[in-house]
């Protein structure tokens, strides 16, 4: 029985970089967390400790900073990651593949009595945008998405008609709070995409579907959100969701002589339902390495 090296990749993880665009007196900020990993002819470094084809992880880190300067900024994180992948694969003959990942944190100019301040910022709440680019030779795949988009409906949500066992205590309801933290990733078909415009549209479509769907289950709402995206964006092959059901339980105020017509709730942080699903086209092209090193659902 022989022993051999299996699939492998290596690189520098979580390179924190802030780029300030000083092109005008009104500055803008790109704040990203970047991970670069490479694949190539790396058997000798693993089996013999021969580093002649092992581009140092420190060099990968430095390249991230240098290219942000050389390219005049970051731009859409998908564009930056694609250009980085192409640089590593095309400029180093011993590198045949690259996985590049970026998270983006949003900042807004601080509002003052004179209007938005030119160069003072406040960190925005809400979701964290992300992307993963995989490149093998001439083949390229882009998966983008976000984590931590917190949404809530104060009505317009029901849950009933489910199986009952002797362990069931959950009462049926035709009026409940529906709340979740949306994590979503979507796989693009090709790379000729206006990344920023598409991201904004996908987020808006998901929010509209969440708001307008009279929900009989969180699964139904999830599907409606994915369906809306695929109907509007033929350049997207599939959408993967992970959405906890952030339970809100009605507080019993009868001990205090008070009724509670769906007004006062206890927001429980755990345990919670965890709903995950893929909404996909039945004729979507093969995913290739698109989802490689991305968690099973997100």
Order of helices and strands: EEHHHEEEEEEHHEEEE
Task: Report the span from N to C terminus.
Answer: 37 Å
Give the structural class: alpha+beta
Instruction: Let me know the largest β-sheet.
Output: 8 strands, antiparallel
Strand content: 35-45%
Average residue pLDDT: 95
- List the quaternary state of the chains: single chain
Query: What is the radius of gyration computed over CA atoms, rounded to a whole number of angstroms?
Result: 23 Å
Runs in which pLDDT lies below 50 for 5 or more consecutive residues are: none
The helix fraction, in percent, is 10-25%
What count of helical segments does DSSP give? 5
Name the overall outline.
globular
Question: Tags for this entry?
Answer:
298 residues; alpha+beta; two-stranded antiparallel ribbon; globular
